[in-house]
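Onboarding guide, step 5: your first structure request.
Type a short instruction followed by the sequence, for example:

Predict the 3D structure of this protein.
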Amino acid sequence: MTKQPNIVLILSDQHRADAMGCAGSAFVKTPHLDRLAAEGVRFANAYTPWPVCTPARASMWTGAYPHAHGIIDNVYGIDNAFAERGRIERTVFDALRDAGYRTAHFGKWHLGEAQPPFFDIWEESFNSRLGHFLDGRIDGTYRPDVQTDASIAFLRQQAEAGDRPFVMVQSYYPPHDPFMAPARFYDPYRHRGVPFAGYYAAIGALDWNIGRILATLDETGLRRDTLVVYYSDHGETFLYRREGEHKFVCTDDAIRVPMIASMPATVPGGAVCGKPVGLQDLAPTMTELAGAKALSPCHGASLWRLMLGEPEPDWRTGYYVQNLTHVSAIAQRAWTEDGWKLIASANGAHELYNLGADPEEEWNIYRTPRPDPGFERYKHYRDYGDIIERLRARAIDYARQIGDGEGVALLETPYSGE
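The system replies with structure tokens like these:
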């Protein structure tokens, strides 16, 4: 690619990977995201490296895992998390600015209260914890609508100026709780037996706004040569997991995220990529496309060849997740590969799940067969020690590759029972 493409990143907060029509949902209405997937590639196995807002966002903008960038919890009341809490200050936006890009941000940042020095445009932006409605009224002005208006105005200005390539971030706070959206988006879910109707209504409202952005790119002639990526920072557990509330756990409902990439001039449409990818892969993808200097340290890999449908024989075979649970502050590391997941916890309460047979992760078969008085759920399972050791070895090897010494020690922690 000789010409630097424009880059539009659209992200949301707490959007589950399964909550899109194109991901197979039987009831979620996402026509614009479905269109984006039909015109590009959907990554069916996309993950967050840490299932919490701020650490995940720091990883997506540096390409580094949280143990390396040093930001392992949400931040409030500070100006710049990279400068004040982190170990890495240079971000992908610094690299793209050096390569001639105009940088713009709209919406939730959650890496500090102040405008970072690497953004040229900073409109309708905030750290976190602002209401989804500007005036606090459920029939009032929806914040994502206002953010979208601002980003549409920016896109029109860029199309008219045409002087520089740009990278634009549109970051929506919903569907993060409280689950709220304008009334018209509740119709497919309310009184239809769908729990958490407000959550899915919020996804519908975001989908509508994403449609507005795509329409603007079409109308201005920018769409063909603009890479558009939609994704989320982590998933949503609906308070089902005892250690995590809405996230903060290593089950798939928290760590898997939607991810779709489209660039009609270059990226083939209608593709589904099953390779394990993560938020740390976004920054190296952007630096490659921009011809910018690579970030260091960087644990991610460019997604560009996967987007093009080209073979990547050396791509990672599994995915590594870091976590600190919310309720008991238990450090964890997880490795998922070939339909299995190992979760190692600092207290020794390790977990193993067969995701093919148990995608809900209800049956922890880490140590089987074992007694289960009154239920006898685990006596008929075989000993999965061979699978545990294979996953543990892969996870330890990867932890060593990225310099996660704490992760190595944690993965070697003896089992202590549930």
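Each response can be followed by summary notes, for example: The mean pLDDT is 97.
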